[in-house]
């Protein structure tokens, strides 16, 4: 347990380092955009390749895709029902932020510390269902309530999903795994080297993006959002933890997965749909802090 808490402390220090580098103007927030592209398009896919090439994918893991997908739909429509009396802008902002999770950037480095490569496999399957929500439902909700006129169809959604390198990597490597095929050693070796950078770069990026300035007029709305996201997520996560007849790692994935921060995709969506970007960014940062504390607490209990 001491070693586990020490690893968590190292994660906090790296996040803090990223925050200090930005506050001291050594790095700027716009530098995070380039860093995020490197993570999502290079180090994260490399980590997915290495992880799924080493572990046998059990058929029960596909239920994680289903649970993640169904929960996203449920939480999205529940949010719109709760916010039915709010204006369109609020419905669009909160409605697109509640359903999806930040797994690639936030969960992977911490899950790797807690559960190792096995944890990456389980959360990877959970993230496949999450991808349909992030690139599908969240985008649809944001576009529907946007001030701009949007033409959204099935082709647009499929196009966005096909351009997600992590999502396409999931599909390809899982298929290769299920077919019993093996990637060339040179691909696995190079991916192994690149994937080692995913954890420190992801944690640094979290620190670079930390920002907590917001208008006090949004405080009530923020509390409503946090209640929907964490109240519902924790309640359903705990319920499934005790009801599902699967192994502990499966249950841990559900319990932790449903309290992860909101997806980073909501930031570019807020720009595209002309929502309050500062509010969306601040709320995203608040979920990072809350999820980090909750994850540390739950991990200590589970460990």
TrEMBL record:
Annotated transmembrane regions: 6-22, 61-83, 90-111, 123-145, 165-181, 193-214, 226-246, 252-271, 283-302
Keywords: Cell membrane, Membrane, Transmembrane, Transmembrane helix, Transport
Topology versus the membrane: Multi-pass membrane protein
The keyword Transport belongs to this UniProt entry's keyword annotation: yes
InterPro entries reported for this sequence: Mem_transp_PIN-like
Keyword Membrane annotated: yes
GO biological processes: transmembrane transport
Compartments where found: Membrane
One cellular-component annotation, GO: membrane
Name of the protein described by the UniProt record: Malonate transporter
Species for this entry: Metabacillus litoralis
Lineage: Bacteria, Bacillati, Bacillota, Bacilli, Bacillales
